[in-house]
Design a protein that fits this description.
This protein is of the alpha/beta class and about 250 residues long. It has one domain: 4-Layer Sandwich (Metallo-beta-lactamase, Chain A). The chain has 8 helices and 13 strands. The protein has a 6-stranded mixed beta sheet with strand order 1-2-3-4-5-6.
Length: about 250
């Protein structure tokens, strides 16, 4: 059996938007499960001040809910969380990594640049989210191409073809994730934009927030232009990001 599940694993409320989500993917292939980004985790909900800090919760606008954790949702689907063998992360911001500790035996797949950034004392990260010392596979520069993008083939326990696609800027190692699925391509772009509306409206408030949060805003804008060109030239590719409710299909 092969299925893909779209999970909302984050709820954030901010003044400009009271329904910010965290769009994660769960790929089911026979008895193996793979998560793409992990949202807020069980330990974040149970120990919010220790794991996240009251300051971060207030600054981001986290609304912590056990039912939103990937762990809980996997159980609700009738699946076994112990079968999550791989977690692919677009980047290591805490709203993408909180659930990693809920799958302690899963291999974490991440770009080499992002792992370096994570351990560089960049204040955006929470090193505690990797304190359980999971096995990590890091992916460096590749000669492979995917529709004009550099493509780093992810080696997992699944047969599904998956690539990390560098979309640097939001963080220094941020990647999108391309998935070949039933004869077509899905392109999850993580936080390359917060809302799809940013692609056409440079003054969109979400874009201003994205600029403020970017490690390298010039590269972030370059990544957005590449996404726009891909969508125009290859409309058959399904493109979606992490935070936009309108792109989420449960």
């Amino acid at each position: 059996m092969k299925r893909i599940h779209h999970l909302n694993c984050v709820k954030v409320v901010i003044p400009m938007n009271d329904d910010v989500i965290g769009h994660c993917l769960l790929i089911e292939e026979d008895d193996n499960l793979l998560l793409i980004d992990t949202g807020v985790g069980v330990q974040d909900v149970e120990h919010p001040n220790e794991r996240l800090s009251a300051e971060l919760i207030e600054a981001v606008g986290f609304q912590l809910d056990m039912k939103l954790t990937a762990y809980h949702q996997i159980i609700e689907l009738g699946l076994d969380p112990a079968n999550v063998k791989d977690c692919i992360v677009s980047h290591l911001d805490p709203d993408h990594t909180g659930g990693l500790a809920d799958f302690p035996n899963a291999t974490v797949h991440v770009s080499a640049e992002e792992l370096i950034n994570f351990y560089s004392d960049n204040p955006r990260y929470l090193e505690g989210h990797l304190a359980h010392n999971p096995p990590i596979k890091e992916y460096g520069i590749s000669d492979e191409q995917w529709f004009g993008f550099e493509a780093r083939k992810v080696k997992t326990s699944l047969k599904t073809e998956i690539y990390l696609i560098p979309l640097f800027g939001h963080t220094l190692g941020h990647c999108g994730i391309a998935i070949e699925w039933e004869g077509k391509w899905l392109f999850y772009i993580g936080d390359a934009y917060y809302l799809r509306a940013e692609l056409e409206d440079e003054q969109n408030p979400a874009g201003q927030l994205a600029e403020a949060r970017a490690d390298d805003n010039t590269r972030r804008l370059e990544s957005m232009e590449k996404i726009k060109a891909l969508m125009k030239e290859h409309p058959q590719i399904e493109v979606f990001g992490y935070h936009d409710r309108e792109e989420f299909v449960s």
